[in-house]
């Protein structure tokens, strides 16, 4: 690391310790007079951060405060995030990051991450040289077209890769300088944004078709050139592009799509864990999905190998999964069924969502619609009529777009639902009993996948990695958590869980001959050696 002195040192977010510089360091680095007298350690600094944070009157102010802290003192930011993940994650991630993205061009303070626009065409390799880090291992990239359930937010979507990277660092312990948030700013279909005088993105309609694909191709190739070890995580692309890009690169580039694959694994883990509460066998379950986009399709496509591993044949596995869209149960009578949904089309007659629940009696209902209210009272009451302990996972983010609230789920099911949601809900007291909703979010999966891919230097990210990640996550739910109806572990343990997932991913990488180098004697130590512990 470069030796910095005086004000330059205090202005460097990586090396700055602010009031924690000792008297000796103050003398050595020319800091005398530049700091108040008091020397405080990181614990005291954290107290100050938390007091300031808790004093802010809105979540968006808290987001801005934390982001400023990251840009001022990286160690303190990450130490506080790691130590108080339950309190702070909702402020740097869903739901607050959604609000921050909506407003990003207005609350902008300091550039973060890396931007590519159509004007960089032909020059992306040389542009990447402007990024100061030489050992990037994890790239989270979005084009901003489907930011959470909020739609096309153009370059304002940069908040998502920045938030996801913060959680790579906090939840898997990846070194911050090995991570890179990227915005492929190819324009926006959001006219209000394009007309907003403060909008900071490329203020033109989106690139489409070959123009779009060739720019993404150039980006992916440039990454292979500049950062050959890097894993590319595609995040919050429109469903159409998400699948197109995954199909285009997954067989040759170290990449995955978090909304399709990470979400699928976290959902599968929740379903596995729910069996410990309901005492049903996974192989007997019927699962219904509302929505036919990236997340729901990804879940169905990962359920297939999971069912097969549980002993079901191909046709039987398909028959356990049903899709519902705005028109009701997806049957052959529907026009324009998406190609990936075709294998799951029901042979029943067309019927409404509620009638489909009555007819099929699903054990598990999953929502990935981005639409608040999509699980209405009739839907939840019917699930509760069909099942003693219905499992309902409302994946959509942010909270304002979740299919139903935790309170609604418990109330309409008379407290019998096993509920999880993409964004966190506080415990709910109903009929004098307190219920603990869990958070079913891909944050439980992608950091561990990334860490495992990094540790194994796997050439590709394959389906089995998501299957083992789901099993590992499900196994990490403690019996006490199961007893109180939670199907995901307390987020406070996520760092440890990510390491567990990483080890499983490494095993797959070596078993499938995808790993770089020889199998280390001690995989755990191999993973552990990569971990960043924030502090001075
Ligand atoms: N919890 C998580 O980890 C996680 C991960 C990925 C995505 N998500 C959330 O899931 C949501 C969907 O993401 P996606 O990538 O699948 O988006 P998408 O745009 O690809 O798919 C949304 C689908 O929902 C359908 N839909 C919308 N309203 C509906 C309604 N009322 N009834 C039936 N169908 C409806 C759309 O037609 C589309 O098929 C987003 O809100 C996103 O934040 C959560
Ligand atoms: O970002 C999240 O909170 C989860 C997921 O990737 C999403 O797109 O909603
Ligand atoms: Mg996402």
From TrEMBL:
<keyword id="KW-0560">Oxidoreductase</keyword>
<feature type="active site" description="Proton donor">
    <location>
        <position position="164"/>
    </location>
</feature>
<dbReference type="Pfam" id="PF00390">
    <property type="entry name" value="malic"/>
</dbReference>
<dbReference type="InterPro" id="IPR012302">
    <property type="entry name" value="Malic_NAD-bd"/>
</dbReference>
<dbReference type="InterPro" id="IPR012301">
    <property type="entry name" value="Malic_N_dom"/>
</dbReference>
<feature type="active site" description="Proton donor">
    <location>
        <position position="93"/>
    </location>
</feature>
<dbReference type="InterPro" id="IPR046346">
    <property type="entry name" value="Aminoacid_DH-like_N_sf"/>
</dbReference>
<dbReference type="GO" id="GO:0004473">
    <property type="term" value="F:malate dehydrogenase (decarboxylating) (NADP+) activity"/>
</dbReference>
<dbReference type="InterPro" id="IPR001891">
    <property type="entry name" value="Malic_OxRdtase"/>
</dbReference>
<feature type="binding site">
    <location>
        <position position="441"/>
    </location>
    <ligand>
        <name>(S)-malate</name>
    </ligand>
</feature>
<feature type="binding site">
    <location>
        <position position="397"/>
    </location>
    <ligand>
        <name>(S)-malate</name>
    </ligand>
</feature>
<feature type="domain" description="Malic enzyme NAD-binding">
    <location>
        <begin position="260"/>
        <end position="510"/>
    </location>
</feature>
<feature type="domain" description="Malic enzyme N-terminal">
    <location>
        <begin position="70"/>
        <end position="250"/>
    </location>
</feature>
<dbReference type="InterPro" id="IPR037062">
    <property type="entry name" value="Malic_N_dom_sf"/>
</dbReference>
<dbReference type="GO" id="GO:0051287">
    <property type="term" value="F:NAD binding"/>
</dbReference>
<dbReference type="Pfam" id="PF03949">
    <property type="entry name" value="Malic_M"/>
</dbReference>
<keyword id="KW-0479">Metal-binding</keyword>
<comment type="similarity">
    <text>Belongs to the malic enzymes family.</text>
</comment>
<dbReference type="GO" id="GO:0046872">
    <property type="term" value="F:metal ion binding"/>
</dbReference>
<dbReference type="GO" id="GO:0006108">
    <property type="term" value="P:malate metabolic process"/>
</dbReference>
<feature type="binding site">
    <location>
        <position position="235"/>
    </location>
    <ligand>
        <name>a divalent metal cation</name>
    </ligand>
</feature>
<feature type="binding site">
    <location>
        <position position="236"/>
    </location>
    <ligand>
        <name>a divalent metal cation</name>
    </ligand>
</feature>
<feature type="binding site">
    <location>
        <position position="259"/>
    </location>
    <ligand>
        <name>a divalent metal cation</name>
    </ligand>
</feature>
<feature type="binding site">
    <location>
        <position position="146"/>
    </location>
    <ligand>
        <name>(S)-malate</name>
    </ligand>
</feature>
<dbReference type="InterPro" id="IPR015884">
    <property type="entry name" value="Malic_enzyme_CS"/>
</dbReference>
<protein>
    <submittedName>
        <fullName>Malate dehydrogenase (Oxaloacetate-decarboxylating) (NADP(+))</fullName>
        <ecNumber>1.1.1.40</ecNumber>
    </submittedName>
</protein>
<dbReference type="InterPro" id="IPR036291">
    <property type="entry name" value="NAD(P)-bd_dom_sf"/>
</dbReference>
């Amino acid at each position: 690391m470069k030796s910095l002195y005086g004000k330059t040192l205090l202005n460097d977010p990586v090396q700055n310790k602010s009031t924690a510089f000792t008297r000796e360091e103050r003398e050595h680095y020319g800091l005398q007079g530049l700091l108040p007298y008091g020397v405080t350690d990181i614990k005291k600094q954290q107290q100050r951060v938390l007091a300031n944070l808790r004093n802010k009157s809105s979540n968006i102010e808290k987001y801005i405060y934390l982001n400023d802290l990251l840009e001022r003192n990286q160690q303190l930011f990450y130490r506080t995030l790691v130590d108080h993940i339950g309190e702070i994650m909702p402020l740097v991630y869903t739901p607050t990051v959604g609000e921050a993205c909506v407003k990003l061009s207005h609350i902008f303070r300091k550039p973060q991450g890396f931007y590519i626009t159509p004007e960089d065409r032909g020059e992306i390799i040389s542009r990447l040289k402007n990024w100061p880090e030489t050992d990037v291992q994890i790239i989270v990239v979005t084009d901003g077209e489907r930011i959470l359930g909020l739609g096309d937010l153009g370059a304002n979507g940069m908040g998502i890769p920045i938030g996801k990277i913060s959680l790579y660092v906090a939840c898997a312990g990846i070194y911050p300088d090995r991570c890179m948030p990227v915005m492929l700013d190819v324009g926006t279909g959001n006219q209000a944004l394009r007309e907003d005088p403060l909008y900071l993105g490329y203020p033109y309609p989106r690139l489409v078709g070959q123009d779009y694909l060739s720019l993404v191709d150039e980006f992916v190739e440039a990454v292979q050139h500049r950062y050959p070890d890097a894993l590319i995580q595609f995040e919050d692309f429109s469903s159409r592009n998400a699948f197109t890009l995954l199909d285009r690169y997954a067989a040759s580039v170290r990449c995955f799509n978090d909304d399709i694959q990470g979400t699928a694994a976290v959902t599968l883990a929740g379903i596995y864990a729910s069996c410990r509460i309901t005492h049903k066998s996974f192989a007997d379950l019927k699962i219904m999905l509302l929505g036919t986009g990236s997340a729901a399709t990804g879940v169905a496509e990962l359920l297939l190998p999971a069912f097969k591993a549980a002993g079901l044949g191909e046709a039987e596995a398909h028959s356990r999964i049903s899709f519902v869209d705005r028109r009701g149960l997806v049957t052959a009578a529907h026009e324009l069924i998406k190609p990936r949904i075709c294998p799951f089309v029901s042979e029943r007659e067309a019927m409404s969502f509620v009638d489909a629940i009555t007819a099929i009696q699903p054990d598990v209902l999953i929502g990935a619609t981005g639409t608040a209210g999509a699980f209405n009272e009739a839907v939840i009451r019917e699930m509760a009529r069909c099942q003693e302990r219905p499992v309902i996972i409302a994946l959509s983010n942010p909270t304002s777009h979740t299919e139903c609230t935790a309170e609604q789920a418990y109330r309409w099911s008379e407290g019998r639902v096993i509920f999880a949601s993409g964004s966190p809900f506080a415990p709910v007291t109903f009929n004098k009993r307190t219920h603990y909703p869990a958070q079913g979010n891909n944050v439980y999966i992608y950091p561990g996948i990334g860490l495992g891919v990094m540790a194994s230097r796997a050439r590709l990210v394959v389906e089995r990695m998501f299957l083992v990640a789901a099993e590992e996550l499900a196994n990490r739910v403690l019996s006490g958590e199961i007893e109180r109806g939670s199907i995901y572990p307390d987020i406070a343990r996520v760092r440890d869980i990510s390491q567990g997932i990483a080890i499983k991913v490494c095993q797959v990488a070596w078993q499938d001959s995808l790993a770089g180098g020889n199998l280390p004697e001690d995989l755990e130590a191999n993973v552990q050696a990569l971990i960043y512990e924030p502090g001075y």
